[in-house]
């Protein structure tokens, strides 16, 4: 028996009335597909969970500093302390509370990732549409500029940008966005090219609709799905890159509620002491689990979107 | 084919100039004092700041500095790297083989593992094996590289002592520096064999295991995903279903028909992956003290060593263009339907 | 395919040395392996001014005329000279302006040539006249030529060769130094900075030939311009075999023709490993003998089997938080509104001594030392720290006293400050845990006194910090000072003299201090000097140029099979502390 499932309409017995064809909307199809796949459901649950924690952050972990993203600390001693009263997840070096960091880190992770994705989408909408819709020399120019940006190893470009602009969360976001935008632009351009030649767009042009209207009403809604897939898969990658920047001393400042920065604070303690390698397990486990689940969730969600929206895989339904 | 290659190669100078312009325009944002930070390493030297700015012409406008640099390059001199304490060209030539060796082994492992897992996932879609393989590969990309690296280091070096950091052990290192050893390629595993020294070969291989494992674990997910979706698409194709309907053994179907076609986008990705590896090694090299180009590149970027960053970017851009070219040529070779325009 | 990979892995595991116990035979018994964090800038002794470079070539490769007696910094022993000059043996003139050094005979450089007094003279002149920007040349230029640079502020050369040649002369088998003004610290300076290298060798490899007409061409070189940057030729117990800048490794080998008995160690390997985890694991497995460990990470090496740690080693380093009394407020994000309106600080905010005193009382010294240094530091009472002549622990110093701080704040700015409040940002250098803690402590402490006092903490990279420094934009920032030579003059001048490093940067000036600093530098009598430096300490207490936060002690981490190491506070720290490889061995 073939392992590849196909969903074809059920065979009808000769003579019977034809079974009514149920027209399913995209939304219903999406929901059904999600329910069918346990990994997709898992991804969705994880993402929703993080969203809720981010929204409720001030309630879950009451801020005490002027800037709520700075983690409160009792004292300054170097050795991390294990979970105990007052610190349910323990503390990192210099006594930053891991629970507070994990909760508010959700906010900063979503903020950073969404901002970068938003910039990427924004830039790609402008450049990708100009490039894909109009073609010609504009297309060549945009493509060559993306070539130049893509000719850089991503992390190095981000490091150079942050080193030049100065270390801050804002500049790290700009740097990561500068690395990611070419991918979004190329994708959107390819989609624009695909949709541009479709019949309904030709028809709209023939009818004399203005270009901007055509782009806004016809082209974009049909091209948005691949962007959605890319963005979901990218969310996790952005947080990982941000953590790498923190490792290099160019991400969030020490004491800032960010998972990547917390992992960076833990990196000298991962090995524990000579006698007990897992003595400081919590310094890694807490932010590590958070990042792990976050990336996993978005990856699974992105895969789920791809399974649903990718026209090449829609196959026979 | 040759016009295609020629046109692609023409891209190279354009990208090269573009890359260098990008870097120099970023440095426009730096004040002369910030550029001087490369040369001042200790607070005691702070009073020499104005002198240092004058000595290295750091207060010249950026376009003048760019022009000076360009003239130098056209004479074949890529400049001096303060972070490497060597001429930029020598630094690149020296660091590159180490990274290349690491990337090569990682690439082979990622390709093997990725295609195998991806195929497995596609064939057994939505079954437990699919879920496990996807979960495992995604989890590799879910934590920053240095975490996996440190964990592996702790277990396999700290506890077992099997795979040390660095590139060679002390005795091996001393032997390699002596006159009894002839470097041919700069790749330790190759050179040691060419020199006929088996114990050196094992030493070099031992030091490779952990960094390669870290990189493989981190990057396999991408390949698994692409292979899987590409395989799925192929398996649904009519000719496959025809073959199955004809009664052909499933593994034969996969091996003979499906895999070759599914590999087409994989090849394209593999080309990008290889060059992407060269950037992904940055953190891995730092953790394992591997003397490669990634470690130097990131140190140069952090310390604003502009000649080094520019030289490094040029080298990398060149590799990327060539890498893409190879991928495209390979693509055309594998798929006769593709015509290179 | 997978099976093949598995087989390969198993084979490698089996062939590899496998699990080694932590205790066992000494690994690499004739080689000492040291893992450090920084990498050296240059091996040219007239160029290098960073501790890694100096720690590598001194005293292993290049030697000095005299040096310190083991751990004791106030006594000297002869090295390339045969006697230590003193007034008693007549080698120092009565007026303190002439020092005569009889030069040892039969000493060979690493290339086999014999060392002559001409080489010594050449080396001293080269050290002074090479004078690269930000280099160590000022150390000899100041006592010998009375200036701290061969060039003026525009970069033109102003020193004449004739003056230099008069300052260092050869008389028979002696080299004689002629000082411009008496310098009580001169022997101390020479003990750390009088490196000798051969004239003919330097000249043969593109260097200055020692001639009067040509020296200006070799003035102020770039790093790569000198052959000596990566080639050495000294008299020391070790010579340089390789400096591989790509693997970041230096290998020193024993000099079999050393003028004393050859060293016990055949080889010293110094590697730069930036990742602490990798350093620590290599120490644990015995693949490394000495590693550098930061104070915050100390608990990870405590109790490690077969590893010896010595703690409480006194250093000549002081950590200070500086008040910038003339802040440049233009385009400065750290001063807020730039006015005394509660939302910022005016550019001369710290010029009011009450403000400075208030901050000094508000700093919790005990917590800073406990948490920033694990309790292993002293609170200094001024720039003259313990271990220097003139240090007096009985002199008054600031204590953590919130009431006194409040009282001082209430008097500040004619009483207005308490009601108006202020808001500014203090900065610290990224990557320094102690400085971050110090900044945090000030913030928490001062803010607790009055809700109108608001301080933010910002960490900045080195490049941004330099930018802020050159434009006087820093507000309250921490920097340390480590001794160039173990004399109180090396600390008094940079902190208290008007033309000292920090006063210039922070707009601090006290003419009384200038006079006392000069007297202290020139008086030979130790008793008089002690009094002068005690007075300077009291002056610092009155004038408060900065908060003298801590004088840290150090610790060293080695495998227990390493023998023969002794501590000397002036040897430049290579791995937490300095090393004289000549006396070390592995047993």
Protein architecture, described:
The complex is a heterotrimer of chains A (317), B (341) and C (587). Chain A is mainly alpha-helical and 317 residues long. In chain A, 67% of the residues lie in helices and 0% in strands. In chain A, helix 1 packs across helix 11 (281-309) and helix 2 (38-55) packs across helix 11 (281-309). The radius of gyration of chain A is 24 Å and the shape is elongated. Chain B has 14 helices and two strands. Chain B has helices at residues 2-27, 32-35, 49-55, 62-74, 88-123, 128-140, 145-159, 170-177, 188-194, 198-235, 238-245, 250-288, 293-302, 306-334, and strands at 80-81, 86-87. A two-stranded antiparallel sheet of chain B has the order 1-2. Chain C is globular. In chain C, strands 1, 7, 8, 9, 10, 11, 12, 13, 16 and 17 form a ten-stranded mixed sheet that branches. Chain C has a three-stranded antiparallel sheet with strand order 4-6-5. Chain C has helices at residues 2-15, 51-57, 117-130, 138-145, 161-167, 186-193, 199-204, 276-284, 353-362, 365-372, 402-411, 416-420, 433-447, 462-470, 489-496, 501-506, 511-522, 526-543; strands spanning 31-36, 66-69, 72-78, 98-102, 168-171, 174-178, 238-244, 249-254, 267-272, 290-291, 307-314, 317-323, 377-378, 422-429, 453-460, 476-482, 546-559, 562-563, 585-586. Chain C has 18 helices and 19 strands. In chain C, strand 5 (168-171) and strand 6 form a beta hairpin. Chain C is 30% helix and 19% strand. At the B-C interface, helix 2, helix 3, strand 2, helix 5 and helix 7 of B face helix 1, strand 7, helix 8, helix 14 and strand 16 of C.
List the helices and strands and how they pair.
The complex is a heterotrimer of chains A (317), B (341) and C (587).
Chain A: H1 26-36, H2 38-55, H3 57-60, H4 98-134, H5 136-150, H6 154-165, H7 169-196, H8 199-206, H9 211-247, H10 259-266, H11 281-309, H12 311-314
Chain B: H1 2-27, H2 32-35, H3 49-55, H4 62-74, E1 80-81, E2 86-87, H5 88-123, H6 128-140, H7 145-159, H8 170-177, H9 188-194, H10 198-235, H11 238-245, H12 250-288, H13 293-302, H14 306-334
Antiparallel strand pairs in B: 1-2
Helix pairs in contact in B: 1-14, 5-6, 5-10, 5-12, 6-10, 7-10, 7-12, 9-10, 10-12, 12-13, 12-14, 13-14
Chain C: H1 2-15, E1 31-36, H2 51-57, E2 66-69, E3 72-78, E4 98-102, H3 117-130, H4 138-145, H5 161-167, E5 168-171, E6 174-178, H6 186-193, H7 199-204, E7 238-244, E8 249-254, E9 267-272, H8 276-284, E10 290-291, E11 307-314, E12 317-323, H9 353-362, H10 365-372, E13 377-378, H11 402-411, H12 416-420, E14 422-429, H13 433-447, E15 453-460, H14 462-470, E16 476-482, H15 489-496, H16 501-506, H17 511-522, H18 526-543, E17 546-559, E18 562-563, E19 585-586
Parallel strand pairs in C: 1-9, 1-10, 14-15
Antiparallel strand pairs in C: 2-3, 4-6, 5-6, 7-8, 8-9, 10-17, 11-17, 12-16, 12-17, 13-17, 18-19
Helix pairs in contact in C: 3-4, 9-11, 10-13, 15-17, 17-18
